[in-house]
Amino acid sequence: MATTAPALDPTYPDPTSTIEIGEDDDSFSDTSSLSANSDTTSLTSSVFNYVYENGRRYASHRTGNYVLPNDEEEQERLDLTHHVYCALLGGELHLAPLDNPKNILDLGCGTGIWAIEMGDLYPECEIIGTDLSPIQPVFVPPNVSFEVDNWEDEWLFGRKFDMIHMRMLQGAVKDFDVIFTKAYDALAPGGWIELVECHMDPYSEDGTYERLATGLHTYFSSLLSASAKLGCVMDQTPQLQQKIKSAGFTNVSERTYKAPVGAWPKDHKMKEVGRTMYGICMIGAESYGLALFTRVLGMDEEEAQKIIEGARRDLGRRGVHTVFKQHIIIGQKPFETETTGTKETKTTTGKEEVE
């Protein structure tokens, strides 16, 4: 079993260093021409019984708790998010040190883009992606399949996994302790969990966000208040590493990356990440906020949109150097070997310290 996580891209800026500010241009990537393949597998008609409100489309299953839309605009945002994480990882799809995996679960797979690319990377591995919405493409690698499933229900996969991948589930999970326990039970000994989350507490290194982005302050204050009231807290990032340890995982480690919003970084790779993050945030402001503000906080659509537009103005405002921290946490289920009447736990130890 391999034990070393992929090395950092040597050409990518040190994630612990300050982002150098360069010339801020307006040539953000045009996200209007991008679209995700919305073809889906053959499923029962009830799965497609979507809910439409305030001009957006939502999954009908567990609509009250899950507040993000599933329409084409949201699918575009999910694929842009995948691009950002691939860029931050220097082209890698994961940090968990996998060695000839046979079964992988992508929990909350969205458009399925990560699962599909993992299927190409590991052609001998069976990969299952699950989501509340059947928005994944039809034509996928033969070793990739998708299921409509709710991770809060009982897990009935009938197999043990070598890796379970979770990306951007905050705001949709009521109890991460329960999810991590289920993941632990569903993993084979030596298997890995990998959690990818954005810290929903933006900041700036030069104080411009704190001083100038009043619209974003109002937006995130409302967002966190609504998610807490719903019972699916939007920002549990600081507690997630400990929760994974408490579930029984060993070799738990965390990497933190900086993702700027906008084209203001001097470094060309950070600038490209910033352009993409701008597109993600401009779409995401409504994706995350609209249903929470109207359903949970009781706002009408006009009031909710005023807060969303205030956030968007600050996102596109020159001189505001907003940064989001991105966290990737991995942990391993211990190997267990039977000895004379007792259980002896054996774990691997990574050669590389992941911060």
TrEMBL record:
<dbReference type="InterPro" id="IPR029063">
    <property type="entry name" value="SAM-dependent_MTases_sf"/>
</dbReference>
<dbReference type="GO" id="GO:0008168">
    <property type="term" value="F:methyltransferase activity"/>
</dbReference>
<feature type="compositionally biased region" description="Basic and acidic residues">
    <location>
        <begin position="341"/>
        <end position="355"/>
    </location>
</feature>
<keyword id="KW-0489">Methyltransferase</keyword>
<feature type="compositionally biased region" description="Low complexity">
    <location>
        <begin position="29"/>
        <end position="40"/>
    </location>
</feature>
<dbReference type="GO" id="GO:0032259">
    <property type="term" value="P:methylation"/>
</dbReference>
<protein>
    <submittedName>
        <fullName>S-adenosyl-L-methionine-dependent methyltransferase</fullName>
    </submittedName>
</protein>
<dbReference type="Pfam" id="PF13489">
    <property type="entry name" value="Methyltransf_23"/>
</dbReference>
<feature type="region of interest" description="Disordered">
    <location>
        <begin position="335"/>
        <end position="355"/>
    </location>
</feature>
<feature type="region of interest" description="Disordered">
    <location>
        <begin position="1"/>
        <end position="40"/>
    </location>
</feature>
<keyword id="KW-0808">Transferase</keyword>
